[in-house]
Sequence to fold (309 residues):
Amino acid sequence: MINLVLDLDTGIDDAIALSIAAKDERINLLGVTCTYGNVTVDESVYNTLALLSLLNRIDVPVYRGRDRALISTSTYVPHEAGRKIHGKKGSGDISLKESKRKAETTNAIDYLSSLMMKRDDFTIITTGPMTNLASILLSYPSLSTWKGKIIFMGGALTVRGNVNHFSEANIYKDPEAAKIVIESGLDITMIGLDVTERTRLYRKDAEKWKNRKSEIGRTLGSMLDYYLDNTLGLDETYVHDPSAVISSLHPEFFSFISLPLTVETESIDRGRVIVDEKRLMERDKMVKVALDVDRNKIETFLSHFDKYL
Ligand code: RIB
Ligand code: CA
Fold:
């Protein structure tokens, strides 16, 4: 059994990642912390609560996190590109019914930092900007020796970015936060575009999910249809956030190398994840970077996911 906390900017691929974590019996989902990115942090909370209700997982607590990047002075407002890919409120062109539940009164930083102080037998998976985690490391330096695992979906080391040639969206939205986490020396795995753009979800997956006739099946299937139409515009699309959750269950689907990574924060390539050449010969503070993936294994895993819907 794997204990997980998810940190989500709950748009469409985050919703699929959440559904896998909520339904796979090998995962014990301890809680979900929300962040901004594809949507505002409040929309992320709304979507997460609504989806957990459809998934019959109202036992999973949801926490509101930071509403903006570390150095930003105003609440993050998603830009048009993100709104186009994930829909106006992050759920494509359907409206998610409001959950009867509210977010916990404790905020994401207090919840997650105190959990990290109490135990290290869990993995934190981030699928949006890493502001919540960076805030924790800034506030509680003692947690830099935390022994649990972190998996982040983000970055593009050997391929081009998806915001510009250098940067991937999650890192680009808060490079300072990503740099703090990535250079922290914690046990960190990067699931970046290097692998997530090599695998596919298909229109036939959306059809299968809708055919389950459950509300969650119809909802996730319609959201995936919207995502297919608005990402590659084809009957197939990339597998970003679900890959991070799948990697926690099946690291053997991926090939990793350990590298001393950093994040550019200054120049034209702000938001770029890159090897820190100054630390190349040192063997500490390394990040496990997924550079290859068994495409068939990921796609087969996803093709069986309908059984949970
Ligand atoms: O670059 C892909 C990432 O950006 C995914 O996490 C997607 O949900 C968006 O946040
Ligand atoms: Ca995401």
Notes: The CA atoms of residues 203 and 273 lie 31 Å apart. The chain has one domain: 2-308. Residues 9, 11, 13-14, 37-38, 127-128, 241 surround calcium ion (ligand 2) (CB under 6 Å). The longest helix spans residues 215-230.
